[in-house]
Amino acid sequence: MTVAYWLTNRLSLICCFLILNLPAWGVSEASAEEAKNTPATSGTSMSILNKPIWMTDLSFGIKEGYDDNILGVSGNRMPKSYSWMTMLSPKIGIDLAPLIKSSYLQALSMKYEPEATTFSQASEENNIAHRISNTVKAKMGVSSLNLDNAFVYVDGGNTAPIYAAPDNVRSGYAHALPRERRHQYQDRMKFDLKFDAGSFFVRPAGSLQYWDMLTDQKSTAGYQNWVDRYDMNGGMDVGHSITSQLAFFLGYRYGRQYQGNVLNSKYSATNNYHRAVAGIEGKLCKWLSLSVVAGPDFRQYDDTAPVNQKNQVDFYSESSLTADITKSDAVTLKYKASQWISSTGQVPTFDTGFDLGYRHKFASSLVWNLNGQLKNADYTVGNLTTGSAPSLRNDWLYGISTGASYDINKNIGVNLNVAANFGRNEQDGITNAAYREFDQCVTSIGVFTKF
Prior knowledge:
Oligomer: single chain
């Protein structure tokens, strides 16, 4: 039993304990006094609708959905697998900062959001995803701390799907569909510690992305072997506040990317990198916020990496733009580009992604969202062009989704979501290229209660 698994179980027990004790902890002094003066009547019970001050979220949702291509195949040879899905998703959030009442501590929060998904026609895809997120924010004089961590433990199957040839050569985005439902740990963390000196500041910072795949590896033809991966880095920014709400900075990160070995393969794209970045962050005006970070990565690959040049320079960027156009309309744009490592092992990939989102509030109780997504995974940065030729891949994903959420009253609401994904191959000169492409549509309707 790993430490992460132990923590997940203990946090689950804590959250259940808090929920069960809400009637005792969620009543204010005024409510308690009122309860004393109110005669008891048959069939009445203490309400838990009023959360205690330290509880930020308490809700429960249930959705019924349909996925028409759960394995992301083209349908040219292997038939598309489909299934109805039932999703149960309780959520509890706490923030201990109001209880501690420290002038330095702004947030000390945790959210636990498990989601149990059952596939009616594909029981091997059943899973429970335990999501735990933590945030720490503190400020003391000229120094401030920000830490965000998102941990996921997926209690899913240990066996990956088998794709018979020629469906065995998959799009990278098709791989991700069943992979994210299998037994694994994921962790994503970012932190920074900022020290202000007038209009200038110094900010040590770091981040972690971690995947521990607990699925079996097999030599069976067409079986999908997934490997462990991580990317961790740390460094420092030096910046200058242009205005009270806008700052420019220069930074440096030293990092390492690790990629495990696929069964019977000697190749791994593990590497170290030095990253120099420039960025601007804050508000350009009252309604427009941005965060732009970009710069070069200077990489040194290990000897086992299947790349033509072990030392190379790659581009990195992670940027976002948020426009609150009106009180009812908001637009978000996200862009990310970086050299990454394949979950199927052996080769690196250059990943690029654009996400565009629009949100409109028709009323305080009705919200509509529209999102578009464009992603590219270019594996041609590697040089494994024989055998299964994993470097001869250039995959694109086009996605569009829309959804609406309506609050029937203060505690009950409904939601409806539709998402379509289109995986496309852009690699020329390969056989059976059409087998790398897929179309997928996922729909869901649900009800939720919140307190």
